[in-house]
Design brief:
Strand content: under 5%
Radius of gyration: 24 Å
Number of domains: 2
Shape: globular
Order of helices and strands: HHHHHHHHH
Largest sheet: none
Distance between the termini: 58 Å
Structural class: mainly alpha
Number of helices: 9
């Protein structure tokens, strides 16, 4: 019903704006559903390609070097200074309660359970995920992927599966190294700033840290690695256009991979706590 003070023209344009909003919302929803469908299809192809021939073992080893070994510096520095900051903040927060002796426990549990896996995955998503998207996207733009199909070579098996396997295998290793460096960073602060002894710091960690804590933290990284590789490869294969499209795809990969890591971390934490 038209209000007395509204003209028919006003109502018409208001309805047009509403229809445009509905159309735009529908298009966004359709694109999101199609993207999730592509991710699910690519995930099944990765799983199938990982257990069936042909195996590109040389490419897997090369990607393990590119993804894992060359990411040690950025993940190690991140974990080292995170452990130092944790020790510093914990010491000053607990100083009023005489809790300086708990610094080792707080640092080790925080790093092993949450900060180590999550920060390492975020750093790898920024460095590796974007690199995977840029590399595969450039191959799509320059028609190298089409050339693989013309030679009866599956792009998923040749390009995607080695990168996915390398990311899944190397992320737990990077996380373990990051945990050790973060604990050592906390040790340095505990000795220099808090005048704690090495034995007191390590004893507090040894008495508190359990195998289940280490297992839950490292267990998350397999899921994180799969998410990073899946999103990076999917966005690379979906590139259409030129260099500008590759840039947009890399940005989208970093954003989506980071969000998926943070969201999945919550559900994985609840899962491992329930086990």
């Amino acid at each position: 019903m038209v209000a007395p003070h509204e003209s028919a023209t006003t109502v018409f344009y208001r309805n047009i704006r509403w229809l445009r909003f509905v159309d735009r919302f529908g298009r966004k929803g359709q694109a999101a559903v199609e993207y999730l469908g592509d991710l699910a299809q690519l995930a099944s192809q990765i799983v199938t390609g990982s257990v069936t021939r042909p195996f590109y073992s040389t490419e897997v080893l090369h990607q393990m070097d590119e993804i894992g070994v060359k990411s040690v510096s950025i993940t190690g520095i991140t974990a080292l200074f995170t452990g130092m900051v944790l020790a510093l903040q914990t010491a000053y927060s607990l100083a009023a309660f005489g809790g300086k002796m708990f610094v080792g426990r707080v640092v080790s549990l925080s790093l092993v359970r949450e900060l180590g896996p999550v920060l390492t995955a975020l750093m790898v998503a920024g460095r590796v995920g974007s690199g995977i998207t840029a590399e595969i996207g450039s191959m799509v733009v320059t028609e190298q992927v089409d050339a693989l199909r013309a030679m009866a070579i599956s792009p998923v098996r040749r390009l995607v599966v080695p990168r996915a396997l390398a990311t899944i295998l190397m992320l737990p290793v990077l996380t373990a190294l990051a945990d050790v460096l973060g604990i050592l960073g906390g040790l340095a602060i505990a000795i220099v700033e808090l005048q704690m002894t090495l034995q007191d710091y390590l004893t507090s960690i040894w008495n508190q840290l359990q195998i289940s804590d280490i297992g839950s933290g490292l267990g998350k990284t397999f899921f994180f690695g799969f998410e990073i590789a899946l999103i990076g490869c999917a966005n690379g294969l979906r590139v259409q256009g030129g260099a500008a499209a590759v840039g947009l795809a890399t940005t989208r990969t970093v954003v989506l991979a980071s969000i998926s890591i943070l969201v999945s971390d919550f559900f994985l934490t609840k899962l491992f706590l329930a086990l």
